[in-house]
Amino acid sequence: MPEIGIIGGSGVYRMPSVELLREEVVDTPYGAPSDVYKILRISGIEVAFLARHGGGHAIPPHKVNYRANIRGFKSLGVKRLLSLGAVGGINPVISPGTIVVTDQIIDMTTGRASTFYDKDEVYHVDFSEPFCPELRAAFIEAAGAINLPVLQRGTYVCTNGPRFETRAEIRYYSIIGADVVGMTAMPEAALAREAEICYGTLATLTNYAAGIGREKLTTTEVIETINKSSINLNAMLQKTVSLITAQRNCPCKDALKDAKI
Ligand code: HPA
Questions:
Q1: Domain count, the chain
Q2: Ligand 1 atom 9: residue of nearest CA
Q3: Measured between alpha carbons, how far is 157 from 179 in angstroms, rounded to an integer?
Q4: Domain carrying residue 197
Q5: Could you tell me the CATH number of the domain that includes residue 147?
Q6: Is residue 260 part of a domain?
Q7: 212 C-alpha to center of ligand 1: Å?
Q8: Which pLDDT tens digit goes with each residue over 104-121?
Q9: Which of 99, 147, 188, 190 is deepest in the core (most CB within 10 A)?
Q10: pLDDT tens digit string along 207-228?
Q11: pTM here?
Q12: Are 34 and 64 in contact (CB under 8 A)?
């Protein structure tokens, strides 16, 4: 059973450079995940890969069935989830192509099913550190090992999309402390925590956010930058997978302990 999962974002719908072992169609009580899970062999280890927006990128960020995706990983036995995402740069010191190992999130999404616990049981999981400290450390160690400069922390503001932001919104997000803006880390990260799955993000900066750089934002620019970054992302993922320990010593594995009312 794969204990490591990868969730690919915009521009990352498969990992052609690694061995495909099999495909798993998974159904969940929350409906169908975005796509089949591709079971890959990376650095000798089985890894489950899912394209967040579907194989042909037909699912926009606000329509992704985040609960089904996370529940699907859980039922495959995944304990550590490496997520990829494209982001716009709010902090002007971060240039396009940079990979950010984000450490905080601000959630500005609305109307997304954001918990597994909205019926009989009430849980409040600790989310002070939304990203697994062990996965973050593995990402940073992997970057060092392959000599790839990455930004070791950054605050991710998650907007609802699918439109890009206004200049005023970005100015506001900058004032409240956001460094990068994307549309998918929430509720994905929170659901992973509720599922007691470690969750870490490699956020690739694909463009300067509205008002930070050039006037008009385009999806072409986003996908082009991700494509250019794919060698770095693949190298990062392969190294990270090889560095992840089977034993988990982080709080993620006990997220539900003492969280139930
Ligand atoms: N805003 C929101 N999401 C994004 C952006 C952006 O500028 N770039 C890539 N994903």
A1: 1
A2: 87
A3: 8
A4: 4-254
A5: 3.40.50.1580
A6: no
A7: 12
A8: 999 999 999 999 999 989
A9: 188
A10: 999 999 877 898 998 898 898 8
A11: 0.96
A12: yes
